[in-house]
User: What shape does this take?
Amino acid sequence: MTIKEKVEAALKDAMKSKNQERLSALRMIKAELLLKEKETGKTLEDAAANQAVQKMLKKYEKAKAEYESLGKPDEVRGYLRDIEVIKSFLSTQMMDESEIRSAMQSLVAELNATEQKDFGRVMKAFMSAHSNADGKIVSGVLKEMLKIS
Assistant: This one.
C-alpha cells in the first residue's frame, strides 16, 4: 500500500469516526501530496511522497517551535497532534542527532576529512546516502566535527 493509499484509507476512517482533528491533518497531507503530483505531472512514487511528507513534517515542527517561543500552548498542542499524524505516514523515520553523529563519524573517517574545505564533499556524500536526515542538524554536527565556527 502506497503512502497516498494509506492517507486515503485513514481519511475514510477519520470521517467515519468523526475525528475532526485527525481529519484536518489528513486533509493537509493529502493536499500536499496532490500538489506534488500536480507539480510533477505524474503519480507520486513512494520515495517522492515520503520526501513530501518529511518536508511537511519539518514545516510543522518549525511552526510548533515558533508558537512555543511565543507562549501559545493551544497552538502548540494542535501542531503536536498534526505532527503525530504526519509521522505515522513516513515510510522511513527521520534520523535523530545521535544516529547522524555516529554515521557522520564513520563517513568523516572514510573520506579522511579534517579541514573546512572538506565540508561540502562530506555534506554531499552524507545527504545523498541519508535522505531521512535533517540537513540543519547534519550541518551542525559536521561543523562541530571539523571544528568550523
